[in-house]
Amino acid sequence: MNKEAIRHTGTYPDIYLKDRQTLILRLRTAKKDMMQCKVIYFARTSPGEKKSVAMECVLRDELFDYYRAELKFRHPARYRKYYFELGGKTEALYLSAWGLGREAPEDGLFEFLYANQTEVIHTPEWSRGQIFYQIFPERFDNGNPDLSPPDCREWGTAPTRENYMGGDLQGIIDHLDHLEELGVQCLYLNPIFSADFNHKYAVTDYYYVDNLFGGNEKFRELVEKVHEKGMKIILDGVFNHTGIHFRQFADILENQEDSGYKDWYHITKFPVTVSNACYECVGAYPYMPKLNTGNPQVREMILEIMEYWISEYGIDGWRLDVADEVDESVWVEARIRLKEKFPGILLLGETWGPGLRLMDGSKMDSIMNYTFRDSVRDFLAYEKIDAEQFDNRIQNMLAKYPEEMNQSMFLPLDSHDTERFLYFCQGKKEKLKLGAAFQMTFVGAPSIYYGDEVGMTGANDPDCRRCMIWDEEKQDRELLEYYQWLTGVRKREACIRTGRYAVNLCEGRMYGFIRYDQEEEIYVLINGEKEEKTVNLPVFYKKRYFDMETGKEYGLLPVGKREFRNSDMYSYGGMLTVPMEPLSVKILKADKGGKVL
């Protein structure tokens, strides 16, 4: 081993607080020979009392191995110096703040100073492994036709950016049983506040639910009924921009440079007209002017709105639109202020990239993980990448965030801003089922976009915002039953919701992984090939294994001298010979009541 072994450390090593008494250290090394890594640490005042903890290799991508260690203390962690020992086959290297050396360092050490409570990585317990369901309210169901606008189109008409179908909150209330039977645990509603346009992203009043949806009291009824069913509900907070009829922006249009609100927006020239030449806006769209979220008055307005809907209506959190375009001070203050009063709320940020800036522990609990969506799409729908490339993406994605954050990560296959996943699959339901199976067994919080469960398709916006299909004769009932089975498995199996993730097979378009904890393990095998294939699947223990869908038992065979995926990371006690149909998935579980054979 030489210094090339960790030449690209990036942000590693890093350290974060699991709680005030527990430090998590992470180290990244170049993917070469498996190393024995450990962290050596001691109190600043007791340099002669060194302790060490072995680090575990928990993830691996194309370039790197990722190690993790947990340091526990009886009191809040403070003033701990540390360095790393990296043991290869022939020699050891030591990593300190000065870099790599061949001798244990005496100075230039890393140091953790103090465990402040606000620096603890914490996400709401309920959000870990949760099943979300995203609803575009105007297209879910028309529960009260009296609310529909005069130009409302017939339900099921092809969507445009302008037309209305009459969806409302009563329509959601009317179908809560459907959501409960589907296994949904949290509703995420696209914007519902008074606003221009059918999408409601051009807000005119943050304190009123749009009359077309039923108003504030109907929303209160919805929240109460959702909570009665044991579900949560979060709202879409559009705080990056407003509509042109928002009171403060309308004042600018009326009073121009004399307006007391001219600093609430990014005005580029006067006189101001409804034109993107006069102010900054979203995507050069003049009807959604961008707020100056660095303005203290604007920041205070946003925080008051967020608190109002939590305290007065009991919502369980916010999905925050284009969160990475809003001044970061808003989210830092929101987390401190709101979490002190409502520690169980969820802050979910929209971003289309990795989102590391939002996920540093001081802002969001979770992000809309489009990196996940893109990877699943490219592997299963587009077939642009093979299992090896897919695994590299997934492992690299998991390595970016602390384990606690990964468990709450919002996992969409599609949304109101993208093509439907079935559209990506060119209508091939088998591929959608593979994507859903991976989504429902992966680390994080899967999200079903309304209608995916009954076979809805559609190109990008506005086609992805079609009316929900409620006619059972037009629904794909077999697909619905499959979704119900998948969500049932997820809700029953703790190791899927919050357990660890290990990959044990990558062959062509065949991908296998294990979800496990101290109590049990579940094996997922996905065949993305268009032909039958039989594979040898390594398992941890010598037990009896069953197909969770069919009940079929698979006989255990000895591993022998075979080399399997990541056999240097995990100890395999046997293997199963598993025949796979084309474009199919199997979810296997060890007999929990059985003994180790």
What does this structure look like?
It is built from 13 helices and 31 strands. With 597 residues, the chain is an alpha+beta fold. The chain starts with 13 loop residues before the first strand and ends in a 7-residue tail after the last strand. A hairpin with a 7-residue loop joins strand 3 and strand 4 (51-54). The chain has an eight-stranded parallel sheet with strand order 20-19-18-15-12-11-22-21. Helix content is 22%, strand content 28%.
Q: In a nutshell, what does this entry contain?
A:
The protein has 597 residues and is of the alpha+beta class. The protein has 13 helices and 31 strands. Strands 20-19-18-15-12-11-22-21 form an 8-stranded parallel β-sheet. Strands 3, 4, 7, 8, 9 and 10 form a 6-stranded antiparallel β-sheet that branches.
List the helices and strands and how they pair.
Elements: E1 14-19, E2 22-30, E3 36-43, E4 51-54, E5 56-60, E6 64-72, E7 78-87, E8 92-96, E9 99-101, E10 110-114, E11 132-135, H1 169-173, H2 176-182, E12 186-189, E13 193-196, E14 202-209, H3 215-228, E15 232-237, H4 247-255, E16 281-282, E17 285-289, H5 296-313, E18 317-320, H6 328-341, E19 346-349, E20 366-367, H7 370-381, H8 387-399, H9 403-406, E21 410-412, H10 421-424, H11 429-441, E22 445-449, H12 477-492, H13 494-498, E23 500-507, E24 510-516, E25 521-527, E26 533-539, E27 545-547, E28 553-554, E29 556-557, E30 574-580, E31 584-590
Parallel strand pairs: 11-12, 11-22, 12-15, 15-18, 18-19, 19-20, 21-22
Antiparallel strand pairs: 1-2, 2-6, 3-4, 3-7, 5-6, 7-8, 7-10, 8-9, 13-14, 16-17, 23-24, 24-25, 25-31, 26-30, 27-28, 27-31, 29-30
Helix pairs in contact: 5-6, 7-8, 7-11, 11-12
